[in-house]
Amino acid sequence: MKGQEWYQADEIAETYESKRFSDGGRLIDEREKRAVLSAVGPVEGKRMLEIACGTGRFTTMLAERGADIVGLDISPAMLQEGRKKARAAGVADHLEFMRGDAARLPFPDDHFETVIAMRFFHLADTPASFLAEMQRVARDQVVFDTFRRFSTRSIYNWLLPMGSRLYSRMEVEQLLDGAGLRLADEEHDFFLPYGLYRKLPDRLAGRLREVDTAVMESPIGDHVASVSYWDTRLKG
């Protein structure tokens, strides 16, 4: 995985959310959470797994809605932040955080109804094997996001020290077919790359988002989006 050592550093975990999801980054957090909730639907009593859960943004959110969920991550520091978040939300007794490798998930086949992975595949060095492993432990649904190859993200990528793996639609379709998954639904958003929003104060980011949304709601929106959210089901 790209940036694995950087990601696991204590100081990165402690400031991860404040640097990415405050000010203009709040818009990204809200949009990603809407995408997840739209894909998974009602989660009361649903057995779920979040891969690369980080500080538990989605794990805690889904636990608050009644999911029986496990958050798995390779970073002990990120998991510690996740546990703090769960305690603050009053759901620490209703979820489990555990350290693990997404390439070798420590669960039997078909163990979870739904498996999700957000902000993961842009760092994946072997996405096909990761997706196949997610499919193995899922009984019904796999939800994940990708950054689009032919978008403003490709320009922004040049400025990043680690870069990101970008995907065309054809590449995603090939990954799904190879993993035995079929596409059930999809959403595409953000003409402008995520990083731009994180650098702006709330008010300016909100105005920029209005322009961005207008572009996305136009006929060309799906073709110029920089982010895609994929809701997939097991074939058969």
From TrEMBL:
GO MF? S-adenosylmethionine-dependent methyltransferase activity
Q: Which UniProt keywords apply?
A: Methyltransferase, Transferase
Which residues are in the Methyltransferase type domain?
Answer: 49-140
Domain of life, per the record? Archaea
Cited InterPro entries:
Methyltransf_11, SAM-dependent_MTases_sf
Coiled-coil region list: none
GO BP term, example = methylation
Q: What is the protein name stated in its UniProt record?
A: Methyltransferase type 11
Organism phylogeny: Archaea, Methanobacteriati, Methanobacteriota, Stenosarchaea group, Halobacteria
